[in-house]
């Protein structure tokens, strides 16, 4: 069984799920899967993936896991009580070879947001592990260990002693066991330079700090749930602040493109939120513009955190650290390059929300290839509303 605990997911799934329970309990959503690798045939593994999903849906939170969640300062007791009754349901997931052929598979998750939000990360982890254990049955773990050791050596030189990284690699990991080995190696080698992990299960098991706030799906859903489309980003941030009252104060900046984010992220939000996370586009340009935006709003950027999390490797982390250190607080979330770098081409797979309450929703990323929407007319309208130039999808 690939997933043995419902905590084996990213923290931001729980933080968003709590907001859904308290503010949008009736929302109905749809997610779709996409593999961005050309020429990868996933169809031989459909039955195995289905079998793993069936086992995932048998899991329940244990009393020990619920007590762990209850001990997180931002998790509320009624939410933990709800999780005590929760389980994932197979009826919300459809997995089949695509009618388009070419080795593609169709995966659709459709149902109440509150009951489907926890599918994404474990389902992606299942697809990865099934694929790699079938295509690389004798994986060269020693090569992975050599690569990891070389990366960590770059971070532990005295000049980079203040460079702090976190693991964000659950969804695209080579395997569960490999992610755990990577985390334990990082913990033993980096010490204070390891901020923690987004994976709640491993954070609990190994006394690490669980990390995460919000993901794109939250801001996307607010396109349908807010009072007016143009105000959906502001509505999402205000609802978040209402739920967490100053905690979990990292805003995601690229759901509508960075220009639209800066227009909405005014003096009020600059003061209210602790920082901002980068997830697409040029990170250097983004960082410089974010620091300039803080300066224009008379906010000392040295009291704010910039989190970089877009397809990072360690040399890129060091480059960004050297560029911005001393000018703000810094954090780096590294995913695939930590948990799936053994010499094999990682799967570039995603599951994205495409509808909420029957209405199309979309992410207008600063990287056009990350935009995912099944309604071109809605995408064009969204760009018009937010004043974003049309770009190829």
UniProtKB/TrEMBL annotation:
Domain Nicotinate phosphoribosyltransferase N-terminal: from-to ranges: 7-128
| Catalytic activity entry | 5-phospho-alpha-D-ribose 1-diphosphate + nicotinate + ATP + H2O = nicotinate beta-D-ribonucleotide + ADP + phosphate + diphosphate
Cite a single GO MF annotation.
Answer: glycosyltransferase activity
Entry-annotated residues carrying Phosphohistidine: 216
List each copy of the Nicotinate/nicotinamide phosphoribosyltransferase domain by range: 165-388
EC code: 6.3.4.21
Q: Which Gene3D superfamilies match?
A: nicotinate phosphoribosyltransferase
Give any Pfam family that matches. NAPRTase_N
User: Entry's SUPFAM superfamilies?
Assistant: Nicotinate/Quinolinate PRTase C-terminal domain-like (SSF51690), Nicotinate/Quinolinate PRTase N-terminal domain-like (SSF54675)
Q: Which UniProt keywords apply?
A: Glycosyltransferase, Ligase, Phosphoprotein, Pyridine nucleotide biosynthesis, Transferase
PANTHER family per the UniProt record, alphabetical:
NICOTINATE PHOSPHORIBOSYLTRANSFERASE
> Which family does the UniProt entry place this protein in?
Belongs to the NAPRTase family.
Read off the NCBIfam families from this record: NAPRTase (TIGR01514), PRK05321.1 (NF003704)
Q: What is this protein called?
A: Nicotinate phosphoribosyltransferase
User: Which organism is the protein's source?
Assistant: Cupriavidus malaysiensis
